[in-house]
Amino acid sequence: MPDDVERKWNRLLEILGRYESMVVAFSGGVDSAFLLSAAYRKLGPKVVAVTAESVVYPASETQRARAFSKDLGVQHVVIHSNEMEIPGFVENSPERCYHCKKAMIEKLREVAASRAIRWIAHGANADDPEDFRPGLRATEEEEVLAPLLEAALTKEDIREISRARNLPTWNLPTMACLATRIPYGTRITARKLAAVRDAEQCLERLGFKQARVRHHGTTARIEIPTDYFETMMDPDLRSAIVEAFRSIGFYHVALDMEGYVSGKMNRELLTKVDD
Fold this sequence. Notes:
Layout: H1 3-16, E1 22-25, H2 30-43, E2 47-53, H3 59-72, E3 75-80, H4 87-90, H5 96-114, E4 120-121, H6 134-141, H7 147-150, H8 155-164, H9 190-205, E5 212-216, E6 219-223, H10 229-232, H11 235-248, E7 252-255, H12 267-274
Parallel strand pairs: 1-2, 1-4, 2-3, 6-7
Antiparallel strand pairs: 5-6
Helix pairs in contact: 5-6, 9-11
């Protein structure tokens, strides 16, 4: 492990050592798994992992979170979130994540209070403030801890340390709420979320481990790493994808020529902010 990354790791442990107990918001992804592992190493049984089960997350993510928590030996609580009952979420304004995060923090506080735990932490890292992240504002307002961000750990750092510590999550593809596939201003429905989920699971079964399916009405826009382009253009595979997507409800299937780029749906917003 490079010296600078090791220093960040030690800094993280110092930060976590300030707290005698902690609830960790645990999605099962790279960042939150790394944070949970570090917190458990430092605080032991005084750490509680909390995972939200919802229509905006594939069931496979909850299953992964359960398995990771069990293997780690940490107490794990699965709660049911109710995003579809939050007007600010289903209306899908640029502040969607702010409203969602606010509601989630309330549920996390309930879990923490029932165990006499004061502090809640989440897995924001040093790369996150570079994108449009209204959810970060919500966590700051609610004084939710961001130990990875405070330790200046980037996504690349987190993967490197996770690999060195043999965490099975080190090379997981980037995860995000399914609502991020639906353009701002387009109302979010359970049906749209299910279509995105089914389409992405189809691509995963066909070997595309990092893929996004953006929902544009009856059109699906596929984002995959450009290294996968040649594979996807295989006539039989391409036909299978088109047929599967039509059965889901997408009459038109497009491949984004730029390839997969995290946060691409925020570009228009960021451009307006810059203007």
